[in-house]
Amino acid sequence: MANLFLTPQKIVTGEEALSFSKDIIKTFGNKALIVTDDIMVKLGNVKRLTDSLNEIGISYVVYSDINSEPCDYMIEKGAELYNTSDCDFLIAIGGGSPMDAMKAVAVVTAIGGNINDYMGKIITTELPPMCAIPTTAGTGSEATQFTIINNTTENIKMLLKGPSLMVNLAVIDPIFTITAPAAVTAATGLDALCHAVEAYTSVKSFSMSDTMAVSAIKRIFDSKLGLYECYSNGKNTEARANMATAAIEAGMAFNNSSVTIIHGMSRPIGALYHVPHGLSNAMLLDKCLRFAVSGCPEKFCQLAKEIGVYKEGMSIEEGADRFIESVSLLCKKLEIQTPAEFGIDKDDFISKTVKMATDAISSGSPANTRRNPSKEDIIEIYKALFENN
Ligand SMILES: NC(=O)c1ccc[n+]([C@@H]2O[C@H](COP(=O)([O-])OP(=O)(O)OC[C@H]3O[C@@H](n4cnc5c(N)ncnc54)[C@H](O)[C@@H]3O)[C@@H](O)[C@H]2O)c1
Ligand SMILES: [Fe+2]
Question: Domain containing 367: what range?
Fold first, then answer.
């Protein structure tokens, strides 16, 4: 069977990546809409970018209102600013939220209407040039054909997709992730782990997506330069660079394969309880992998071999179990909160499990799991998140 492998048009990685990218950015247009958040402005990251644009004579207008995961009304405002300011291309600097917001703004400026109209449609219209500069390692949005926007009327996180949402340039400079606080580092790094594990164990996985997924997983579990090192010693630039690479590899993996049960179940929690995306994935990791493992124990066992926790003589099932134990141990070391610790009320959560399971299934992601969950299975997993609480 043939498979298409989509990537961003250009990827620049490593120290000084932004400076290296100036000549490419210059070809994109005359005036950029910079999509970002207030923290990026305060940290001086936006100034770093605007200094570079000044050097190459590119005008810009800064839209820094993406101060939470992006919602429909933020997209409307960004599109209006783009049009009234005569911008002709876009740059996002920040985590997944500004990057996703940039893609959605580009869609509305190019095609019109409201972003909520695009749910369920494949976006193929040509969009203005887009450049993504991630500051978390992370979502991989810089390498995906997806944008996730909150529809505030329906209280759902919409997964919008289409090849036109691939950016023209991804700038992966580890300098931008150094300042990420420990909790953000942990949640976003586990988001990348979910992307890679889900992509690898999806029914849509194939050789190229597997290569990216395995490489990302090995980087995340690297004992010297992996996620735990970034969490406990955020100033380690080598570790930050390793995780930034893991994030884009994991992004490329799931972009071309798919996510599965974890992301499918995570989006409804994010939409209803405003749990940051990486954290809601992390809350589900152990329970979802334990459900999914019997669909492809040999693939989970292979991952145990890749990260070096498989021991000679173990059965496939024991190897698979070792991998899941390693994931759960990492979550513990990263002090991932349970839903109760995050402050979600158990009774309220339980009362919403049917809606959440319905929304999870209708996103299509759970059906990509090699053990396809029923609605009842999903409800049981949601309920199990409150076991012992
Ligand atoms: N498009 C995709 O393929 C895709 C994939 C996964 C997730 N997402 C989406 O991405 C969004 C989440 O993105 P995220 O997890 O990167 O978080 P985020 O962009 O919401 O950022 C989280 C917080 O960390 C801060 N932050 C980011 N980088 C920082 C840095 N270097 N230093 C200090 N603070 C920093 C931000 O200002 C913000 O307060 C969600 O909406 C999720 O649905 C998209
Ligand atoms: Fe994700």
Answer: 182-384
